């Protein structure tokens, strides 16, 4: 019986992995420009971390977490998102003691038991960032501009930025009461999940994807009418900063995000050709989460984006990805020169030259054909003549020029051409 990958997971094969590496390379460079440093946290954590951090009434905690007991009966969960683990590490190692502002990023797999669809898997890889320690709306706007910078470097266009505020613990209860009062009249028409949310977490109803619920919430009260002066001032400042650098955004009063820890600013960046689940990046501010997880009273803001969706969006826009290029192919003429060829290709690779070879005994014609197929810039011929004379026969596959040189000259020729192509 053939064993296949588990539903909701998939293999990232070499051709696609090149795309992933390219995206990771771009985001690492941009994170560095903005002062973010990488953190790696465990793939599984204590279940309590996500219950306290994400919220008991969220779909993630109620329906989607991969939770299990270890051999000592402790409840552990494969991480469904990256923020809670990053903050747990931030607190456990007292990172807040060394700097008033800590900027972290991470790249790694997350796990959610949900219906698999294009760009959405039960194991998916997220890129995320967290800025911990500042309440300044400057940081909110900066983290959105950083995302836009990433997408511009990836070549992505036609993205929309949606922005909202979900208030704070002072003004959100006022809005919650208004929302419950409005929705109570349509309680019987709500889906079963939203009937439960009505008393427990009515803001989650605004994010429901069921068509009947979407129709009911069309004319709900706007949270903007319930904001306290501090939240209103904060949101106005975020918008002014974005206006200053000419980042276009849409204010979406239904945008609340799927996690309970958000306060004030929330945002999504989406690409319409991805379908119903069209967000490529999303995040927001969480000024109470650090304290709720046992730390000091300290604000924070962050975002996450999925690599799978980025690749789909880039492919849809026909954005080309750089391919791994072969510098030189070593054509071996006869088994008797194998030792010479083995030493030669070893020296080439030690000199940072990408060198390939066919390990099976093939005709010179077949070897040249393979060199062309893999796009090798040069072919070095290793035959009895080269061994006897202690020379290198090298052919430029672009100009078709062929010459006999010594090893040092061959390395210099190859590296000069490779450097020229990389400029």
CATH A-level architecture of the largest domain: 2-Layer Sandwich
State mean pLDDT (0 to 100 scale).
91
Going across the major beta sheet, what is the strand order? 1-5-6-11-10-9-7-8
Number of domains: 2
- Give a count of the beta strands, DSSP E runs of length 2 or more: 16
In the CATH hierarchy, what is the superfamily of the largest domain?
Bira Bifunctional Protein, Domain 2
Task: Assign a percent range to the helix content.
Answer: 25-40%
Low-confidence stretches: none
Characterize the main sheet.
8 strands, mixed
What is the molecular shape? elongated
Characterize the structure shown.
By secondary structure, the chain is α+β, with helices and mostly antiparallel strands. The protein has two domains: 14-171 and 227-316, BirA Bifunctional Protein, domain 2 (2-Layer Sandwich); 328-418, 3-Layer(aba) Sandwich (Rossmann fold), CATH 3.40.50.800. It has helices at 14-33, 47-54, 59-64, 83-92, 137-154, 172-184, 192-200, 211-216, 229-244, 289-292, 307-316, 338-350, 364-373, 384-389, 407-422; strands at residues 37-38, 44-46, 67-69, 75-78, 102-111, 123-132, 160-165, 250-251, 263-270, 279-285, 300-306, 328-332, 355-357, 378-382, 392-396, 402-405. The strands form three sheets. It has an eight-stranded mixed β-sheet. A five-stranded mixed β-sheet has the order 13-12-14-15-16, sandwiched between helices. Strand 9 and strand 10 (279-285) form a beta hairpin. Helix 5 packs parallel to helix 9 (229-244). The protein starts with 13 loop residues before the first helix and ends with a helix.
């Amino acid at each position: 019986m053939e064993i296949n990958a588990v539903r909701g997971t998939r293999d990232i094969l070499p051709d696609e992995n090149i795309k992933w590496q390219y995206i990771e390379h771009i985001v690492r460079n941009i994170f560095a420009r903005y002062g973010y440093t990488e953190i790696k946290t465990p793939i599984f954590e204590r279940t309590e971390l996500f219950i306290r951090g994400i919220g008991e009434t969220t779909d993630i905690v109620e329906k989607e977490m991969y939770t299990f007991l270890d051999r000592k009966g402790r409840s552990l969960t494969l991480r469904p998102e990256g923020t809670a683990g990053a903050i747990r590490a931030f607190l456990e190692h007292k990172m807040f003691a060394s700097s008033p502002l800590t900027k972290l990023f991470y790249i790694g797999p997350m796990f959610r038991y949900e219906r698999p669809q294009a760009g959405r898997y039960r194991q998916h890889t997220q890129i995320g960032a967290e800025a911990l320690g500042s309440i300044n709306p400057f940081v909110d706007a900066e983290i959105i501009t950083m995302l836009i910078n990433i997408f511009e470097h990836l070549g992505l266009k036609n993205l929309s930025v949606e922005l909202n505020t979900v208030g704070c613990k002072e003004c959100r209860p006022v809005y919650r009461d208004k929302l419950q009062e409005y929705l109570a009249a349509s309680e019987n028409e709500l889906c079963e999940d939203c009937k439960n949310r009505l008393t427990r977490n009515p803001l989650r109803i605004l994010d429901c994807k069921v068509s009947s619920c979407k129709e009911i919430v069309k004319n709900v009260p706007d949270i903007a009418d319930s904001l306290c002066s501090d939240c209103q001032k904060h949101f106005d400042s975020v918008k002014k900063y974005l206006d200053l650098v000419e980042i276009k955004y849409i204010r979406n009063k239904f945008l609340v995000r799927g996690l309970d820890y958000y306060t004030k600013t929330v945002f999504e960046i989406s690409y319409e050709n991805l379908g119903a689940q069209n967000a490529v990046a999303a995040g927001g501010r969480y000024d109470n989460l650090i304290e709720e997880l046992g730390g000091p009273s300290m604000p924070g803001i962050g975002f996450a984006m999925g690599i799978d969706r980025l690749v789909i969006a880039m492919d849809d826009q026909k954005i080309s990805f750089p391919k791994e290029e072969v510098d030189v192919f070593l054509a071996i003429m006869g088994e008797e020169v194998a030792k010479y060829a083995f030493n030669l290709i070893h020296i080439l690779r030690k000199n940072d030259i990408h060198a390939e070879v066919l390990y099976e005994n093939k005709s010179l014609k077949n070897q040249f054909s393979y060199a062309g197929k893999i796009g090798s810039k040069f072919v070095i011929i290793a035959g009895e003549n080269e061994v006897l004379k202690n020379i290198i026969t090298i052919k430029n596959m672009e100009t078709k020029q062929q010459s006999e040189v010594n090893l040092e000259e061959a390395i210099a020729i190859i590296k000069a051409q490779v450097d020229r192509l990389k400029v």
